[in-house]
Amino acid sequence: MTQIKNIMVTGGAGYIGSHIVQFLCDKGYSVIILDNFSLGLHENVDPRVKEVIEGDILTEQDINKAFSHDIDVVFHFAAWKAAGESMVDPAKYARNNIGGTISLLNGMLHHNVKYFVFSSSAAVYGNPAYLPIDENHPLRPTNYYGYTKLIMEQNLDWYSRLKGIKYGSLRYFNATGYDINGKIRGKEKNPANLSPVVMEVAAGIRAKLQVFGDDYNTRDGTGIRDYIHVTDLADAHLLAMDYILEKNENLVVNLGTGSGHSVMEVINIAKSVIGKDIPYEIVGRRAGDPAKLIASSELAHKLLGWQAQYSDLTTIFKTMCSVYF
Prior knowledge:
The chain is of the alpha/beta class. The chain is 38% helix and 17% strand. The strands form 4 sheets. A 7-stranded parallel β-sheet has the order 3-2-1-4-5-6-11, with helices on both faces. The chain has a 3-stranded mixed β-sheet with strand order 12-9-14.
């Protein structure tokens, strides 16, 4: 296997990126972060990081500065991720998610870096033709965010075929929770996902929660999602890196639990864990939201030996309480 000198993490001060960086540092790797801090937090940067470059993946000078560290592997988390926002401001998502990833790939080619671990999304699938969703499911995203992730995956495939880059593409379902060891304490900026918004309401940061639709064909009318703890995600990323380095093969896998919870179930479990009321109002559906998204992660288990350990909702909200209260 390739001897790793340095690992570059784009978005390494962000919500998921900071958890990945902590795992990498725990394993003794030398890490360089490239982050523009639009969403990242300086307080969440692991003190063991070799260098933090406050820069942008769309800026050639910043990319070259990061790659000057003799990088062996790139972990890529520097993307906008709010599905609803992507439907009203697609240009923002096209520029950063698509353009920024191509800029990063071109930087890899220029500096002869061959290994890439990519934060993808279940949003590439769109409305499920069947459940649970496996990796052979049709790719028909229903929001522009999901479309950008699909385009990024397709570019990775082309760069692999044409230029020999090897990549792991990890399709998350709903990432949530906080560091199981309680070391990462900075709250996610401008969250759009359900669980951090629930926490903001419980903590008095927001007055109430909006539930987008209660007329879906689900057990209580609200949308059902597969929630995956960020510590479980971090574990999968390191296993994916080991896989592509050892096998010199590409990897595309789902990361989820195989079970789903409705919005109302999430609210009720959060109330029981936190011990506070969570006011909410029912509003209209959001464009592009499917009724149910549940993962099959059998391939990740088969290829990586991975399975979720911390992704029950009670554990998820307990880890979030240490950050919000």
